[in-house]
Structures are given as structure tokens and as C-alpha cells.
Design goal:
The chain is α/β, with parallel strands linked by helices. The protein has one domain (3-109, 201-381): Peroxisomal Thiolase, Chain A, domain 1 (3-Layer(aba) Sandwich). 33% of the residues lie in helices and 20% in strands. It contains twelve helices and eleven strands. It has helices at 21-36, 60-63, 79-92, 125-129, 135-150, 154-169, 182-186, 256-268, 285-294, 303-308, 325-329, 333-349; strands spanning 3-14, 45-49, 70-73, 98-106, 190-192, 195-196, 205-214, 226-235, 277-280, 363-370, 374-381. The strands form two sheets. Strands 3-2-4-7-1-8-11-10-9 form a nine-stranded mixed β-sheet. Strands 5-6 form a two-stranded antiparallel ribbon. Strand 2 (45-49), helix 2 and strand 3 (70-73) form a beta-alpha-beta unit. Helix 3 crosses helix 12 (333-349). The protein starts with a strand and ends with a strand.
Length: 382
């Protein structure tokens, strides 16, 4: 892709009483515009996404009624990645010189549920009656099977959570900013075996925005542009084991995360070994572990030794989720994928403060996965 990110903005994730999702999106957009030294009037196309807001494109009510095309989209947890791809595509298609992506959401407390319309999702009422319409049951079942098949221990699960909250404590924009001890996590309440209270993220509130332009023009706007070398979006295949699977296949097809990451690396012309810092979907700890292998950073089962050796910590060989990931930030679905890209931009700019990855990182990777089996992967370079 010949497109660069020249402006980023993030409204802190967490709980913000009295602030609407639209207001958070507008605040993030204004921060991104200021970061790129441009005005809303300079933007040629915009893309906004949210689960809870019917028409997130109404941010233009606050930013300015300039008449530009503003497209609304939603694609589960991959919404933010889709927003980025759409904004980049508008640039390469010649719609204009500048585009903006805005992800925003404000979720109620409690676990995400697919709701009562199971027939509309191609599932019988039995799916909800057995508890599988709630995400924690599905995550736990998938994690338990992976642990059995590849020798992953409960110790490994807890170490992922310890890292997440340690990183969140270093991130002034994170929601959960208290580092938790191994004992606090490993002895916390069981939710769905083998996953405990602090192994899960929580629904939250927040927004992220990004301004993009052609790479050849990037230095007109920013001293530290981040080049979007690749962005790939894939959906589930028949036989893959995803959020709405009505059964567990004995020999499942590759997940959309495998397909998206392979496509992104091919597009960028590099491999997983070239990545200096990564952001992986960690709705709960099992998914971060699984995604390490699905995205090509190790073989299935190797995560146990890598995580125990500290290889995914900020000073390790492949730092993962340096901002605390979903565990420390929570998940406002529309903004989540863009938060990952925001963190990689901050790291590659060298502006991450206490959580800055050492060694002058130059290349980053993001992977977001969500309902009902969708994934976006990106490769970014400075």
C-alpha cells in the first residue's frame, strides 16, 4: 500500500459518565487532525464505525457539515481494521488527498452476548440455552481444547495476564492502570474453566481516529509518518472453529487470522521474523496465545516456553500488546482495532514513554479477530 498514517488520536478507554460515544469520537478525530496539522475542512473522505451507535457518521454534526462522503461500517471486533482499510482504499482510488478513520463505542457493563435473534444468525435456540450465546463460554471452550492439543498450562495463561496489567500500568491512556500479581490473577474467581476473572477483558468506552494520505505526500504533514505497508481482511471458512460455530470440527480449517496475517505479510514482502513489536487480539489470554501461532510468530505449543522466558514482554524478542492490550484497556468494539494501530504508531515514533520498546523498532504488526469469525492484519513501518 502506498498510504501513510500522518495523524493519530485516542480518547482514553474506560468508563466516562456523561460523555457520549459520538463525543469521544469527535475528540479523537480532533486530536488526530491536530497531530497531522490539518483541518476537518481538508478531509476528502471519512469512515466511522461503532456497534452501539446507529449512525456514527453523524460525527460530522460536531466536526463540520462539509459535504464529504462519510461511510458507516461495522464488522465485529474487526471494525477498526476495516475502517483503516477503507480509508486507505479511498486514497489509492483517488477520492482525495486526505482520509480519516474514526472508531468509537460505549458499551454497557457485563459480558457481550449475541442476543436473542439466534435464528437470524443461523443458529437454533439451543445455542443460547446451553450458554454459548455468551462469549466467555466460547472462549473457554476454545482455550481448553488448545491447551489440551498443544500442551499449554494454566501458568502460561496467567503469565499473559500479568504482562498485560504490567504494561497497562505504564500506559497513561489505559483503563486498568494497576499491575496485578501472579497470585492475584491465578487465585481470582473462575468464570469458565480454565479462565478466571482477570484472564478476560471487559467491555468499555473510548474512541480512536487516524488521518491518512499518500506516502509520497506524508512528510508535508508529519515529521514521523507511519507507512501502512499492508492491510488484509479475511472472513471465516466453512469448517473453521469460530464464535458462532454450532459444533467443534475434528479437523478445522485455518482461522481468518491465519489467512489475514499470511496475506498481510505477502503484501508487505516481509515475514513474521521481521516484526519488532506486535499487537494481537486478547479478548482473553487464550486468544493472545493462539494468535501468536496463527500469525506465524511461533509453532503451536511453543508459546509456553516463549512466554515463560519473557520473550513477549517489552524487553523481549517480540513485545506483544505493549499498551496492555484489551485486558488493560477493555474493548469498545468500534475502536479496538484502531487502538492496536495507534499503539504501533506510538512505538515506531519512539513516543511510548515508560513502555517504549528498546532497540529502535522500525516495523510493527497488528491482528484483530472478532465475531462471527473475521480478522484484519496490518504491517506498519516508519
Amino acid at each position: 500500500m502506498d498510504v501513510s498514517i500522518i495523524g493519530i488520536g485516542l480518547y482514553p478507554f474506560g468508563r466516562h459518565e456523561g460523555v457520549s460515544a459520538l463525543e469521544m469520537g469527535v475528540a479523537a478525530a480532533r486530536t488526530a487532525l491536530n497531530d497531522a496539522s490539518v483541518r476537518w475542512e481538508d478531509i476528502d473522505s471519512a469512515f466511522a464505525g461503532s456497534l452501539e451507535v446507529l449512525q456514527p457518521d453523524t460525527v460530522n454534526k460536531f466536526l463540520g457539515l462539509t459535504g464529504i462522503p462519510i461511510t458507516t461500517l461495522f464488522n465485529g471486533c474487526a471494525t477498526g481494521g476495516n475502517l483503516l482499510i477503507s480509508a486507505a482504499n479511498s486514497i489509492t482510488a483517488g477520492v482525495g488527498d486526505l482520509a480519516i478513520a474514526i472508531g468509537l463505542d460505549k458499551h454497557p457493563r457485563g459480558a457481550f452476548s449475541v442476543g436473542d435473534d439466534l435464528a437470524g444468525l443461523g443458529l437454533g435456540q439451543w445455542y443460547g440455552e446451553t450458554g454459548l450465546a455468551l462469549n466467555p463460554q466460547y472462549f473457554s471452550m476454545k482455550t481448553k481444547r488448545y491447551m489440551h492439543d498443544h500442551g499449554i498450562s494454566e501458568d502460561c495463561l496467567t503469565r499473559v495476564a500479568v504482562k498485560a496489567f504490567q504494561n497497562g500500568a505504564r500506559n497513561p491512556l489505559a483503563w486498568r492502570r494497576k499491575a496485578l500479581s501472579y497470585e492475584e490473577i491465578s487465585e481470582s474467581q473462575i468464570v469458565c474453566d480454565p479462565l478466571r476473572k482477570y484472564h478476560f477483558c471487559s467491555p468499555s468506552e473510548g474512541a480512536v481516529a487516524m488521518v491518512l494520505c499518500r506516502s509520497e505526500d506524508a512528510h508535508r504533514y508529519s515529521e514521523k509518518p507511519i507507512h501502512l505497508k499492508a492491510a488484509a481482511f479475511r472472513t471465516r471458512q466453512y469448517g473453521s472453529f469460530e464464535t458462532l460455530s454450532p459444533s467443534v470440527p475434528a479437523d478445522s480449517k485455518p482461522s481468518p487470522s491465519v489467512l489475514a496475517s499470511e496475506a498481510a505479510f505477502e503484501q508487505a514482502g516481509i515475514g513474521p521474523e521481521d516484526i519488532d513489536v506486535a499487537q494481537l487480539q486478547d479478548t482473553e489470554v487464550g486468544h493472545e496465545i493462539m494468535h501468536m501461532a496463527e500469525c506465524g510468530f511461533c509453532e503451536d505449543g511453543e508459546q509456553e516456553a516463549l512466554i515463560k522466558a519473557g520473550e513477549t514482554e517489552i524487553g523481549g524478542r517480540l513485545p506483544v500488546n505493549t499498551d496492555g492490550g484489551l485486558l488493560a484497556n477493555g474493548e469498545p468494539i468500534g475502536a479496538s482495532g484502531l487502538r492496536q494501530v495507534h499503539e504501533i504508531c506510538v512505538q515506531l515514533r519512539g513516543e511510548a514513554g515508560e513502555r517504549q520498546v528498546p532497540g529502535d523498532p522500525r516495523t510493527g504488526f497488528t491482528q484483530v479477530y472478532g465475531f462471527p469469525g473475521v480478522s484484519v492484519a496490518t504491517v506498519l513501518q516508519r
